[in-house]
Specification:
The protein is mostly helical and 442 residues long. The chain contains 15 helices and 2 strands. The protein has one domain: Ammonium transporter fold (Orthogonal Bundle). It is globular and about 60 Å long.
């Protein structure tokens, strides 16, 4: 090796070491407040609940979604499918630290940009142990950053359900990277970070538009651009292990209590109603889904029950802290059959291969839940529901869907003309576990 190269490498390592030693002192020092910050006024109970919720939402992706999706693919693609959830976690976590958080929840100077946040907090610059985000003055900012990170992680992982069993792993890595910055962060800011949808009064308690509709629409674009799996509509592509899917559903269900309950940003009455609504709606949705399936196909399936539960969880997400239990029950009961139509009838009618129904369940149930939030929002439950309308919800959904669709298409084109999107036909037939990862289940 060239001696000058060794010298440069040594200097770089010494610089990193010096930065690591100085970082704790920098973080602990009381910084000048950034535009989005306020001094921390610690809410101990709320902090404890959001710490718990952060762990619950992380569990939704790993291992919840990984097992839920992993059980629904063919055995030869199990490892590759779980790898998507794992890669999404790793990539988004690094990006959130570098730029995702500030683009989502930061501001530029005194004014808030309506479409994307500022860059003051790149690499979490200016975040300290005594700072809080103005949205959550009782929570340490590091906790708010971590909690919101778990939402950013699961969103692209959900999209992977649409392109499962045929995408290159290199393409998924590049897709997750670009999509987080180009699509997720701007939509998150527009709804939750002080952007135009929040200012308009669009209600999205825990991610109906930001997470589920966003991921669902992106999944639909991915399914159309990539095209169907080889043999789709002809070969048997039934789930290889519904036990995995059932375990994954259970982990998603439990984790969703932190997803929706934690979005109250405290241990309070709104968190309580959000948690109860998040128990009731998926039960009602499972009943609605299975009633339709039993009537049309004469047999109730476990996959139908599990998918109905997830559809209900998706639909109640935008409404959880804004509606009373009667509203939650009706949202669930309606969303089950609606998601059935999206996942079973619509994709076959329009002939797009949404492998694991990312759009059929998350997109369709998310749209239904967001619109029904405008119907059932109740100011007696949450004063922020005052003035809610279906029209405002529809405008917000339209904006999120348009941004997601266009942004996703741009990202896919970048992937297509750089690393490529699809594996070769032979590799797809062999299975992505071995062709992409050199591993296989026996």
């Amino acid at each position: 090796m060239n001696p000058s190269t060794i010298t440069k490498a040594a200097a770089f390592c010494c610089g990193l070491f010096a930065f690591a030693l100085s970082a704790p002192a920098l973080a602990a020092a009381p910084p000048d407040l950034l535009a989005h910050q306020v001094p921390l006024a610690l809410d101990g109970a709320g902090t404890a609940w959001i710490l718990t919720s952060t762990a619950l939402v992380l569990m939704m992706t790993l291992p919840g979604l990984a097992l839920f999706y992993g059980g629904m693919v063919r055995k030869k693609n199990l490892i590759a499918t779980i790898a998507h959830s794992t890669a999404a976690m790793a990539i988004v976590t690094v990006l959130w630290f570098v730029a995702g958080y500030t683009l989502s929840f930061g501001t530029s100077g005194a004014a808030t940009n309506g479409f994307i946040g500022g860059v003051q907090a790149l690499f979490l610059n200016g975040v300290g142990v005594k700072t809080a985000h103005a949205l959550t003055p009782g929570l340490p900012e590091f906790l708010w950053i971590g909690y919101q990170l778990t939402f950013a992680i699961i969103t692209p992982a959900l999209i992977a359900g649409a392109f499962a069993e045929r995408i290159k792993f290199s393409a998924s890595v590049l897709f997750f990277t670009l999509w987080h910055l180009i699509v997720y962060a701007p939509i998150c800011h527009q709804v939750w970070g002080g952007g135009w949808m929040g200012e308009l009064g669009v209600l999205d308690f825990a991610g109906g538009a930001v997470v589920h509709v966003n991921a669902g629409v992106a999944g639909l674009v991915c399914a159309i651009v990539l095209g169907p799996r080889h043999g789709w509509g002809r070969d048997n592509m039934a789930p290889h292990n519904l036990a995995f899917t059932a375990i994954g559903t259970g982990l998603l269900f439990v984790g969703w209590m932190g997803f929706n309950g934690g979005s109250a940003a405290g241990a309070n009455e709104i968190a309580a109603v959000a948690v109860f609504n998040s128990l009731l709606a998926p039960a009602a949705a499972a009943v609605g889904w299975i009633a339709v399936e039993w009537t049309l196909k004469k047999k109730p399936t476990l996959l139908g029950l599990l998918t109905g539960v997830v559809a209900g969880l998706v639909a109640i997400t935008p409404a959880a802290g804004f509606v009373d239990p009667r509203g939650a029950f009706l949202i669930g009961l309606i969303s089950g059959p609606v998601a059935y139509v999206g996942a079973v009838w619509l994709k076959h009618k329009l002939k797009y291969d949404d492998s694991l129904d990312a759009f059929g369940v998350h997109g369709i149930a998310g749209i239904a839940g967001a619109l029904l939030t405008g119907v059932f929002a109740n100011a007696a439950i949450n004063p922020l529901a005052e003035g809610a309308t279906v029209w405002k919800q529809a405008v917000g959904l339209g904006g999120a869907m348009l941004w997601s669709a266009v942004g996703t298409f741009i990202v896919l084109m970048i992937c297509k003309y750089t690393v490529g999107l699809r594996v070769e036909k032979e590799a797809e037939i062999e299975g992505l576990d071995y062709s992409q990862h050199g591993e296989a289940m026996h």
